[in-house]
Amino acid sequence: MEEGEAPAAALLGVMRPHEGKGLEAHPLTWADPVTENPDVGDTEEWEIYNLTADAHPVHVHETPFQVLERREITVEEAEYVTDVGGPLPVPPGDRGLKDTVISYPGTMTRIRMTFRNPGQFVWHCHVLEHEDNEMMRPYRVGPEQKGQPADGMPHH
Q1: How many helices (H) and strands (E) would you count in the chain?
Q2: Is 142 exposed, middle or buried, given 0-12, 13-18 or 19+ CB atoms closer than 10 A?
Q3: pLDDT at residue 138, as a whole number
Q4: Are 130 and 56 in contact (CB under 8 A)?
């Protein structure tokens, strides 16, 4: 693939409120600044919104997590979430501590994790073609450390 050909819909990023449209997806590349930066000992809940037609096995390095819930979402224009439905049952295979969860098309998956180790790590889609096309993001636990890249990291 030529540089810049990776589809924006297959990137990780952040969701931001959008007046009149609900939530708007803001895809980010590997080189964009770190957006997830908990302190050591923090417990956070992350919502993973899948606005694509593909299922994505999302892997978070360094910290196990618990799948709290999934909800169906209504997606408009491939970038807006205009409605979030009620919680869906968590199947038995998703219970307990995980390091990977499948994010199904048209769903929001909520996970909870506690960050115990300082440093810079990665979360990404485990589909190799997606990972190779930047469906991965760095995250940092605690402050930036000496010698740690400020934005992004080399591929693992």
Answers
A1: 1, 11
A2: middle
A3: 95
A4: yes
Please say if the pLDDT value at position 38 is more than 50: yes
Amino acid in the structure at residue 32 = D
- pLDDT (tens digit, 9 = 90+) per residue, 88-132? 989 999 999 999 999 999 999 999 999 999 999 999 999 888 877
CA gap 111, 66 in Å, rounded: 5
Gap between the terminal Cα atoms of the chain: 20
Closest CA relative to residue 30, chosen from 3, 51, 53, 56: 3
Q: What are phi and psi of 131, to 5 degrees?
A: -60, -45
Report the pLDDT value the prediction gives residue 96, as an integer from 0 to 100. Answer: 96
- In angstroms, the Cα distances linking 4 to 9, 32, 36 are 13, 14, 24
Question: What are the tokens at 28?
Answer: 């980010």
User: CA-to-CA distance for 28 and 24, rounded, in angstroms?
Assistant: 13
Task: Fill in the amino acid letter for 40.
Answer: V
- Average pLDDT of the chain is 89
Share of the chain above pLDDT 70, in %: 88
Residue 12, pLDDT > 90, answer yes
